[in-house]
Amino acid sequence: MDSITYKNCKIHFNTTCYTAINAHIQQHNFSKIFILVDENTHTHCLPLFLEQLHTDIAIEIIEIESGEIHKTIDTCVGVWNTLSDLDADRKSLMINIGGGVITDLGGFVACTFKRGIAYVNVPTTLLSMVDASVGGKTGVDLGHLKNQIGVISDPDMVLIDPNFLHTLPANQMRSGLAEMLKHGLISSDAYWQKFQELSALTLADLDMLIYESVIIKKNVVDEDPFEDGIRKTLNYGHTLGHAIESYFLSNPNKTTLLHGEAIVIGMILACYISTELTNFPKALTDSIKTLFISYYGKVTINKDEYAPIMELLKYDKKNNHGNINFVLLEAIGKPKIDCKVDNDIIIDAFEYYAS
């Protein structure tokens, strides 16, 4: 697969990843290399990566705890202090090996430490390969509110090696697949149709679908790097999806949802709202709901939980001037941004999901 370039960042695939990172290290005279992992990627992914890394530069491993709950400023402070204690300087390189939590937080740490050091992202989950790998969004959560603190800053390169996917449990694979399904809904019916028989997909199919998903997001980000217009379409399903994810994360009586699990619910709700407001065909909404629930199951959201979830919408990053802005669909591959939605329709959408 050919490498993909956007702005000053290169995205490499498969064995090209290791040729590229070794050449990059050789060319740039880095003083030290710091590798950020969590306990899972430390065990399952780091050994594979280090086998392919050829350098005499000193390497330090920094481990943080896994999970969205640790995607916080407090974790950043711990990593910043560790970098300082280990004599990191502005010529250091940081390599983030993990899912979206690691690449988001690690990127934020790198681009703020000493006003910015070089970093490379090595996404190891399907979600991070097709989503966090492109676009330069870094940052952390503010309490249970997702991605409230951060900057847009591109890594030197992104290395996508699907061999890391063999270490993932099934629910993490499904979580990543949700973003690929989203790419189909917002970009093209041809790409969407490739997911209609999920059980028939092979690993070879997945390799190519990952590549296509990265290109879809890359093309959007190239056109709108700072989310002033078309890049907002990448948030399809995320307005309510993030609110649901935050609610479940903060409520001790609920089982925490993976990002993709929450976004799937958000996409079903957005399809229903699209049928009501932008003439998206009802039959398509029904078929999408059926497909998603057959693969992800249905999550119980009680009527008395609608209001606290909707209250969280005010923290959505697409909002402006006090307005909550939704991304809706007029057709598959034809999204519409900055849509205003009445609370009554949102409640009807929850009822539709539950029915």
Task: Explain what the structure shows.
With 355 residues, the chain is an alpha/beta fold. It folds into 2 domains: 4-168, 3-Layer(aba) Sandwich (Rossmann fold); 171-354, Dehydroquinate synthase-like, alpha domain, CATH 1.20.1090.10. Helix content is 48%, strand content 16%. It contains 14 helices and 11 strands. It has helices at residues 16-28, 39-44, 46-52, 73-85, 100-112, 126-132, 170-187, 189-193, 203-223, 238-250, 259-277, 282-296, 303-311, 343-354; strands at residues 4-6, 9-13, 33-38, 59-64, 93-98, 118-123, 140-142, 145-149, 157-160, 326-331, 334-339. The strands form 3 sheets. It has a 7-stranded mixed sheet. The longest helix has 21 residues, at 203-223. The protein is globular.
CATH architecture of the largest domain: Up-down Bundle
Low-confidence stretches at least 5 residues in length (pLDDT < 50)? none
Question: What is the count of structural domains?
Answer: 2
Rg over CA atoms, rounded to whole Å, is: 20 Å
Strand order of the largest sheet: 1-2-9-6-5-3-4
Give structural attributes.
355 residues, Rossmann fold, Dehydroquinate synthase-like, alpha domain, seven-stranded mixed sheet, two-stranded antiparallel sheet, globular, metal ion binding, 3-dehydroquinate synthase, DHQ_synth_fam
